[in-house]
């Protein structure tokens, strides 16, 4: 026990929509096959948020409610909500504000954080700093995206990969040797040209022309992104492990962003972790962008034990990447 205040993850929540879009159904929509998708990406199905006038806030609200119920937390005690997303309900106000009001977090301030697929770990590191400062006692970090809203379902290079979903983590202070132990976050703006959305921002506002040219969808140069992701996500995960003197045997779980099965395998190989110690749900949810890591923690929560060492790693468009070392803070009842 030390006097140092750490930020411990004390609860997680998650939500995925009911509608399941299988590879078989995608075969009827675009020129692809179940086998082609599975062998190249590891995705078998993904969830899609259906309905009129529903945004990513719907999933964020459900994820937070799930966490509040499980941890028996009074929403009025929440100090801060950070929502990591690239598919905000609107350009403004922040989707985090919408979630805060809906869950009854009337005393919290809230904002959105945008860092593509690395957003959740950026949010976790940011929330950790607020806790470590001693100023705040309960910080909720949400990661979620409604990727179906920005996918071109005639583009087989992108529409097969992504799905919709959201998860969250509650951070609270502790003086025990658990919680967020270390983080290493990076970015490189020269990656802009390989993975982006061309229109809809201030550089190219929406117009009849941008819509007709289909410029409001995810654009990706897969081979270049794959190369960057494999190298950088694997390197940063290994760096965080090494500087905390963690060998492969010390790591109970690798928690990798669910971008592509081959990227996950490469990261596990670089860190030296056996597949049975790698969290994976890409086959069921696809790449939910900001949602992947909190959804992994939600799916695997019952297997986690207090003191387990987790290396969380992500890579995102533009480019952003990083890794966080977390020592798990509780046994799930």
Summarize the structure.
The chain has 333 residues and is of the alpha/beta class.
Helix vs. strand class:
alpha/beta
Fraction of residues in helices? Answer: 25-40%
The CATH architecture of the largest domain comes to: 3-Layer(aba) Sandwich
First-last Cα distance: 24 Å
Q: Return the CATH topology of the largest domain.
A: Peroxisomal Thiolase, Chain A, domain 1
Poorly predicted ranges (pLDDT <50, ≥5 residues)? none
- Give the CATH level 1 class of the largest domain: Alpha Beta
CATH homologous superfamily grouping of the largest domain: Thiolase/Chalcone synthase
| Beta strands, count | 13
Order of helices and strands: EEHHEHEHEHEHEEEHEHEHHHEE
What does the radius of gyration come to?
19 Å
Largest sheet: 5 strands, mixed
Give the percentage of residues in beta strands: 15-25%
Q: Could you say which overall geometry the principal axes of the C-alpha atoms support?
A: globular
Strand order of the largest sheet: 1-7-6-4-5
């Amino acid at each position: 026990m030390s006097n140092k205040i750490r930020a411990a993850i004390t609860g997680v929540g998650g939500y995925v929509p009911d509608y399941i879009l299988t590879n078989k159904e995608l075969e009827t929509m675009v020129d692809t096959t179940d086998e082609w998708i599975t062998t190249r990406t590891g995705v078998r199905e993904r969830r899609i948020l259906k309905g009129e006038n529903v945004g990513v806030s719907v999933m964020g609200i459900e994820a937070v409610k799930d966490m509040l119920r499980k941890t028996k937390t009074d929403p009025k005690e929440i100090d801060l909500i950070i929502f990591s997303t690239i598919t905000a309900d609107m350009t403004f106000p922040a989707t985090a504000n919408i979630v805060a009001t809906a869950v009854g977090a009337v005393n919290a301030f809230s904002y959105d954080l945008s860092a593509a697929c690395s957003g959740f770990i950026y949010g976790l590191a940011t929330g950790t700093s607020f806790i470590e400062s001693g100023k705040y006692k309960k910080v909720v970090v949400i990661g979620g995206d409604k990727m179906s809203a920005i996918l071109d379902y005639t583009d087989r290079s992108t529409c097969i990969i992504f799905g919709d979903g959201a998860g969250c983590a509650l951070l609270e202070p502790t003086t025990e040797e658990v919680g967020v132990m270390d983080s290493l976050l990076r970015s490189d703006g020269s990656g802009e040209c390989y993975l982006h959305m061309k229109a809809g921002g201030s550089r190219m506002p929406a117009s009849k022309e941008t819509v007709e040219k289909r410029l409001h969808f995810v654009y990706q140069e897969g081979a270049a992104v794959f190369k960057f992701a494999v190298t950088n996500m694997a390197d940063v995960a290994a760096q965080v492990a090494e500087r905390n003197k963690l060998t492969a045997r010390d790591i109970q779980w690798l928690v990798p962003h669910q971008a592509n099965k081959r990227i996950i395998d490469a990261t596990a190989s670089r860190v030296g972790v056996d597949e049975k110690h790698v969290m994976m749900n890409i086959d069921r949810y696809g790449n939910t962008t900001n949602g992947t890591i909190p959804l992994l923690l939600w799916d695997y929560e019952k297997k986690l034990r207090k003191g387990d060492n987790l290396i969380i790693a992500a890579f995102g468009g533009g480019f952003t990447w990083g890794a966080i070392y977390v020592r798990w803070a509780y046994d799930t009842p």
